[in-house]
Structures are given as structure tokens and as C-alpha cells.
Amino acid sequence: MTVPRTERATGETGTGPRPRRLTGGDVGIPPRHLDFRLPQEMVRWAYADNATATLFLAMLSAIFPPGEDFFVRSVIHFRDRVTDPELRARVAGFTAQEVIHSREHDRLNEAFRSRGFPVHIPESAVALALKVLDRTSPRQQLACTALMEHFTAVMAEDILGSDEFAGRVHADIRELWHWHALEELEHKSVTWDVYELIGTDGPERGRAAPLVVATVLPAVVFGWAYLLVQQGVWRRPRDLREGYRLLFGRGQFLRRVLGRMPVFGHPRFHPDRHDTRALEQRWRDTLFGDDGALAEQLRRPVREA
């Protein structure tokens, strides 16, 4: 089940209008070339002034570049099977957005490194875990990507749908996360629609969660724990308790996100069954409207794959 988001574009020629190749922007997945203005003296503990939660955010930023590279490769493997012009354009928009995400998180990760956070450790750990997933079939990799894209979409909706994240994350990096969350929602159904195109498989979908839990999750936990030890936070039990409460406590951010993950296993699962278009439009206006927070940082269009 796909919720249509756009109409086919046309172009003018000397003999009248004719269909032109759709782009990601035509189908609601525009690649936005942004250069975030990260401050030279970025605040050290950027999540509610808590080291434990901040280092979780740093770990999350660190794993995005290898993760999004895996996502793109798993989808691009089946690009030749995509003949529908709209889905081809959505794949192109998804690819371009993910490439830009990786670039901007590389820049944020460099800022974290300049603050003494060795974020290359969680990045390398997750990259190694994804190499294990690379040994599975291309179809299984796509199923794992669909699961992980579901996680990022649910997390993005939570970030944008409540005031909690904006109230806790420092302005130095808040807008970068808001932009990333918006684009995760814009392309949330692309991977699943490609998977449906090649034919979803029940056992394959069932293996996705155990595979990700057995490979990526230990790498994530290790990377976060390494940062906590390296920064000496493990000797600060009050900070650890408060950070855990902020992230996993009753009614808190990650507990809400994890609580919505099982829907991926439902036989009629489709990302667009949970409609976030109104939320997306609100944040497009907030970030990129005439007086949008990021309007001045929006640069030339990015060439799509």
C-alpha cells in the first residue's frame, strides 16, 4: 500500500509538452545541499547537559555514515528492477539524501572528535557489523535495511512530533538533527517499496530482526560503552542514571521508539500506513519556508543518482 505524494512532471519542447524524467524533488524527496554552520566552540554536553545522553547522540551520529552507505547499496543493487518512473525518482531522491546525510554527519563527527570524543570507534564497530550483513544475500540485506529504515523513521517522527528533543538538545546541533529527521520521514517508504517490488518473503523478513540484533546492536552498545569509559563517565553513577532515564525511562524517547518496532512484523506492514505527511509539511515550512531556520543555508540542487 503506497500513499501517492506527487504527480508526474512535464517539460515544454518546441512541439508541446512531453513527459520528462522525474527527480527526487518531483516526488517529495528533494536532496537538499546544506552546509551546517557548526560553532567552533560547540557545547560539550549537548543533550540536557548530560554526558551519558550526549555520548549516545555522538555514537548515533558516528554510525550514520557506514549505516547509510549500507542502506544505499542494498537499494541500488535492485535499481535495474525498478521500471516505474515515480519509484525510480524516489530511489534517486533517497540515494541523494542519504549521501548528504553521511557528509554532514562526517562534519559533525569531526566536531565531536575535536572535543575529544573518539567517535571513530563506534563508527568502525558498526562498519564491521555491516560487513557481516554483507555476507547475506542481497534480498536479506534489503530486508535488514527496511527494518533499520523503519527504526530511523520512527525515531525521526518522535524527534519532530514532540517538544522533548528540541527542549533537550543544544541549539549548536539541534537544526542538523531536525533536518535529518525530516528527510528520514520523506523517504521512509522507499526501501520497503523496492522490497515489495522484488517480492517480500516472510522468513526473510523474520530473519531481519535477529540478524540486526546479533550484529549491529552489539556494535552500537560497544561503541557507546567505549565512549562512556573513555570520557570517564562510568565513574559518575548519577550522570549514568540520569542519562539512562532521559533515554530509556518510562515514557522517554528511546522507550517510545522501541515500543513501535514490532509493527514491522505485521503481515500488512507498510511505512505509509502511518501517515506523517502533515508533520513533514510543518517541518518543511519551519526549516525551509520563507523565514525558515535553514533557508539561508540551502544551496544549489544536488545531482541525483
Helix tally equals 11
Query: What's the number of domains?
Result: 1
Shape: globular
- What order do the SSEs take from the amino end to the carboxyl end, as H and E? EEHHHHHHHHHHH
| Order of strands across the main sheet | 1-2
Oligomer: single chain
Specify the CATH class.
Mainly Alpha
The total count of strands amounts to 2
Percentage beta strand? under 5%
Please outline the major beta sheet.
2 strands, antiparallel
Q: Which spans of ≥5 residues are poorly predicted at pLDDT below 50?
A: 6-14
Secondary structure class reads mainly alpha
Radius of gyration: 20 Å
Helical content (DSSP H or I, runs of 4+): 55-70%
CATH architecture classification name: Orthogonal Bundle
